[in-house]
TrEMBL record:
Residues 97-289 form the HDOD domain. It comes from Pseudoalteromonas ruthenica. Pfam families: HDOD (PF08668). This is HDOD domain-containing protein. The lineage of its organism: Bacteria, Pseudomonadati, Pseudomonadota, Gammaproteobacteria, Alteromonadales. InterPro entries: HDOD, RNase_Y/CdgJ. It comes from the Bacteria.
């Protein structure tokens, strides 16, 4: 997705006719300050990452790396630094993302409309073969399939999935395009992050049904929560391949870049796509990892508070250690989600 962009931004250290020039690192000192005043790298020990639920979740995605960031390899430092610069001026990055299909725009128009025109949405999807194929595949999944006969056309898919299922399917199909491909070093990352995204969306929809928040808006917003993480991972993997594909990337570099920039990148994407303000405000939970939770939570919209709780609940369910998950569950306060997580942990 970003190979052309990264080749323009990063030098390749793969030997060609001459040996690789690793002295290039001397031109980019590790302690060189970033050329902007509004942000600086975050000290992992200085910020309260929800009692480090974020750290535990990243360990689940990448595995534990005993080496702190400052002890990881110089190449990881270099790529981390260069991508940090890109995060602060993301215009080039945004221009390389897949174009938002017309079906997503149609879904956004219908999110708050209980009597939306299904036929109009179907007509739009029919002009997008990839989207139509994804919806038919989803209609044949255990979640929606209600008969033995295989579904092979779009209207039958709608009859099986229902109106809300159709809306959710369109959103899923588009967001899944950003799911990172399996890498040689982190083979399960893409599947893990996608399952977390789906679970967060399902939890948000569940919590919305117990409140005045629109379930469709909650599902859409929650599904976007991890988009920044997906894109940063893909950037990192492709960056290592461009610079030197034979080097094993440091998970510490991945974790730090995700912690510092994933939520801001998600918000940047939401504004770039000109999503409804309801959705954009619902994503403002991203600031929670930069400032103290107690002070910021009251400033969030009801949708943002709900989706933040869904995100926390899903991360707790991802953790393999039941005792660790219970110790990190203090910030999960939504009664329905808390009950769901308790039930999950009891069965672990």
């Amino acid at each position: 997705m970003f190979r052309k962009l990264l080749r323009a931004l990063l030098p390749s250290f793969v030997p060609a006719e001459v040996d690789a020039n690793y002295a290039f690192f001397d031109k980019t000192p590790e302690n060189e300050p970033l050329p902007f005043a509004d942000k600086a790298p975050v000290d992992d020990q200085a910020m309260p990452y929800e009692n480090d639920l974020e750290g535990a979740y990243l360990d689940y995605l990448f595995g534990c790396d005993a080496r702190p960031m400052q002890q990881s390899d110089s190449l990881s430092h270099f790529i981390y630094h260069q991508l940090s610069l890109l995060m602060h001026e993301p215009e080039q990055l945004l221009s390389h993302l897949p174009v938002m299909p017309a079906s997503i725009s149609q879904v956004l128009k219908e999110l708050d409309n209980p009597d939306f025109d299904v036929q109009r949405l179907l007509a739009v999807v029919e002009r997008e073969p990839a989207m139509a194929a994804d919806l038919i595949k989803l209609a044949n999944s255990p979640r929606y399939r209600r008969r033995e006969q295989e579904i092979t056309e779009l209207k039958a898919a709608f009859m099986s999935m229902g109106a809300n299922g159709l809306l959710e399917g369109v959103v899923q199909s588009y967001i899944k395009r950003f799911t990172p491909r399996p890498s040689i070093y982190y083979r399960q990352f893409g599947e893990k992050i996608w399952q977390h995204a789906l679970q967060t969306a399902d939890f948000a929809k569940l919590a919305a049904s117990d409140s005045q928040t629109d379930p469709g808006a909650a599902y859409f917003t929650a599904l976007l929560y991890n988009l920044g993480t997906m894109i940063i991972f893909e950037l990192m993997i492709e960056a290592f391949n461009v610079v030197d594909p034979d080097v094993t990337p440091s998970s510490a570099a991945f974790k730090r870049l995700i912690r510092e920039y994933s939520h801001d990148l998600t918000l940047t994407l939401a504004n770039y796509w000109q999503l409804p303000q309801l959705i954009v405000k619902g994503l403002h939970h991203s600031r929670l990892h930069r400032i103290r939770l107690e002070r910021s939570r009251a400033q969030l919209s009801p949708l943002a508070q709900l989706c933040e709780q869904a995100d926390i609940a899903s991360k707790l369910c991802c953790l393999q250690n039941q005792q660790q998950a219970r110790q990190l569950s203090d910030h999960l306060t939504h009664p329905v989600l808390k009950q769901r997580v308790d039930t999950h942990l009891s069965g672990v």
